[in-house]
Amino acid sequence: MLQIQRIRQEPETIINGLKKRGVDASQTVHDLLEIDGQRRAIRHKMEEKQARSNALAKEIGTLFKSGKGAEANSLKNETGLLKQDIKDLSEELHTLEEKEHTLLLTLPNVPHPSVKAGKDETDNEEVSRSGDIPSLHEDAKPHWDLASDYNLIDFELGVKISGAGFPVYVNHGARLQRAMINFFLDENRGAGYTEYQPPHFVNAASGYGTGQLPDKEGQMYEMPLDGLYAIPTAEVPITNIFRDEIVNAADFPIKSTGYTPCFRREAGSYGKDVRGLNRLHQFDKVEIVSITDPSNSYALLDEMVAHIAGLLDKLELPYRVLRLCGGDAGFTSALTYDFEVYSAAQQRWLEVSSVSNFETFQSNRLKLRYRDENGKTQLCHTLNGSAMALPRVLAALLENHQTPHGIKIPKALAEYTGFDIIK
RNA sequence: GGAGAGAUGGCAGAGUGGUCGAAUGCACUGGUCUUGAAAACCAGCGUACCGAGAGGUACCGGGGGUUCGAAUCCCUCUCUCUCCGCCA
Q1: Closest Cα partner for A312 from A402, A403, A400?
Q2: A373 lies in some domain
């Protein structure tokens, strides 16, 4: 959520920035400024009456104590009137506050200056590319065939137990999953991230904190009996560790990591990219979350990008890094880099990581602050990224490293799997 | 599932109608003392909004009510804890 103070200070910057997303915010900003002005005027008026009422109440108390009951009672006339006024004003104030809040929720984050205007993924900029795209032998297969040939993943079994999009990993497939989780967590820990094992269900307050609610309400699995939501990413519970906190600036950057399964309803995306591991209702992901002060957040974003690149290098996968254009970046993001690995048999790029700086967009909702050098509280910048989403990494590993003799496991990962080839 | 207790500042914990944004202790920050440290002593120490400032307003889990006046009384919701039962 954008800060109203910022909209007051630089409405034009915000309107122009949002144009890069293809969003025309001029009407909303205009309405917000008007409502905000009214709100503050009414608040001021109400506070004046409250001050008067407080003073009178004090006076009445003193008068009663000194036995001047008649005088005290005469003052009560005025307080009665004030009371009604205050009630009316406060109702008006609440209405305006609600309107303002509702409007604020509709505005996405303002893109960073480096973000290009654009409509969708076709307008994203490739900023780097690494690794060689393998030339596969003639009988090379897509990962869903490999998964079944080598008995690694049983999609039909998942359908029986739960439904489409809930694969069952078996034997070497299951072990590979477990190995990747440990590999990623160890690498992240080695880079200074504190490891967490957070809850997989969160309450509504947490959903609002990171912006899943109300923006993406229908994307989360919901347990209405208990008022809980299955997390769509570890970002939600891990970032909410810091909700309503004033963190110590000396601890910056605060770096956290955690593995969780992720649950997504993927409503409205049936039939699109659902083959194999490309899009699932439940998948495993290791997430990194960082918190720092505004002056260092973009350097930290670069550091996170470099860290993720290092992971893909160790997995010996070809990848490219994209800077998302305004229209393709998420609602809450100021700047997002996507990592895509090349899946050689499908002959397409698969998104395996998305790294974003949210600036104060999340922390404003989270009330996540630090104290600056003057002792004033300021909103932190929050960032996060996948390091790494497992299914598509697995898909690329299987496809790219297949040989006529079996599927080779990259050296870094083989230390975790205990085997270096799947036959 | 049954029974009970509770929700107050970073933490612990007082406060049952006015002078309470709130005692006290711990923690934290600054200072005195000390070769240094500890101890002791002194001072400071919640958040948000409005205001140039003085200052004002709100907040004692959320919402509503009683009252001139509510942390304190009433209603209601939520959450937490303890004991019993069941159970990984």
Answers
A1: A400
A2: yes
pLDDT (tens digit per residue) in A279-319: 899 999 999 999 999 999 999 999 999 999 999 999 999 99
Asked if omega into A214 is within 30° of 0 (cis), the reply is yes
Q: Nearest to residue A27, comparing CAs of A92, A102, A103?
A: A103
Q: What percent of chain A has pLDDT over 70?
A: 98
C-alpha closest to that of A304 among A243, A257, A351? A257
CATH classification of the domain holding A294: 3.30.930.10
The total number of structural domains that make up chain A: 2
- The complex's ipTM works out to 0.85
Mean pLDDT over A384-409 rounds to: 94
Angstrom distance, A52 CA to B57 C1': 11
The spacing between the Cα labelled CA in A89 and the C1' in B65, in angstroms, equals 19
In chain B, which nucleotides are within 7 Å of a protein Cβ? 18-19, 47-51, 56-58, 68-69, 78-79
Residues counted in chain A: 423
H helices of A21-68, where?
26-65
Give the end of a domain, one of A50, A72, A106. Answer: A106
What is the CA A273 to C1' B19 distance in angstroms?
71
- On the question of pLDDT at A55 being above 80, the answer is yes
Residue A173 covered by a domain:
yes
State the nucleotide closest to A377 in CA–C1' terms: B47
Pairing mode, strands A369-371 and A246-247: parallel
Residues A184 and A332 in one domain: yes
CA A318 / C1′ B28 distance in Å: 51
pLDDT at A181: 97
